[in-house]
Amino acid sequence: MSERALYLISLYTFEIGWIVYALIFLLSSKGSLEKAKRADPASIGGIIFQTLSYVMVWSLPRRHETPLFPLGLWFQFLSTILVVVIIILSLWMMSAAVRVLGKQWSLQARVLEDHKLVREGPYRFVRHPIYTRMLGMIMAAGLAWSHWIGFLIALTLFSIGTAIRVRSEEKLLREQFGAAFDDYKRSVPGVVPIKF
């Protein structure tokens, strides 16, 4: 298989993945209409940084049909495999997280009157699987589309935005669930499914 064919597989998988992600997002946004018991407006700042990271990873493409790093056919093959796997896992993570959260799903950090501490589905592996999915989509975009400079800027913006949102959400969850949340936080990694 040629580098061009691998590049096109990677690119089309990436594009289809983003379209499916947008559909999942749009179809699941009805859960965010529930009345919040408490919300943290600071999470809006994180949303802005994460949105800017998506804009950056999309708006600085590299030259058509060129790999992220010109390391030959083996690197393009590995990149293509990674893009396909990352997109599949990211889409599963998003749809499973939204399904498990149900009406608790929201863009802004908030807790509902009858909020539950979710530990099933992808929440067994990471505390913030939707951010894990977002990171995966940025990684796939970097491998398939973005110029390395745009990719690095996007990762930086995403990291800042995610740190803001995680801090905001976890503050609310700690206030709501106390020691139960602290136990969960100790046993399950935050965004990257590796315990440090």
Secondary-structure blueprint of this entry?
Elements: H1 3-28, E1 38-40, H2 43-59, H3 73-101, E2 109-111, H4 129-144, H5 148-177, H6 179-187
Antiparallel strand pairs: 1-2
Helix pairs in contact: 1-3, 1-4, 2-5, 3-4, 4-5, 5-6
Helix content: 55-70%
Structural category is mainly alpha
The SSE order reads HEHHEHHH
- Distance between termini? 39 Å
Strand tally = 2
Low-confidence spans: none
Outline: elongated
Describe the structure in your own words.
Helix content is 65%, strand content 3%. The protein has a two-stranded antiparallel ribbon with strand order 1-2. It starts with a helix and ends in a 9-residue tail after the last helix. α1 (3-28) packs parallel to α3 (73-101), α2 runs antiparallel to α5 and α4 (129-144) packs antiparallel against α5. It contains 6 helices and 2 strands, in the order αβααβααα. The chain has helices spanning 3-28, 43-59, 73-101, 129-144, 148-177, 179-187, and strands spanning 38-40, 109-111. With 196 residues, it is mostly helical. The chain has a single domain (3-29, 36-187), classed as Up-down Bundle (Four Helix Bundle (Hemerythrin (Met), subunit A)).
In short:
The protein is mainly alpha-helical and 196 residues long. It contains six helices and two strands.
What attributes does this structure have?
196 residues; mainly alpha; Four Helix Bundle (Hemerythrin (Met), subunit A); two-stranded antiparallel ribbon; 6 helices; 65% helix
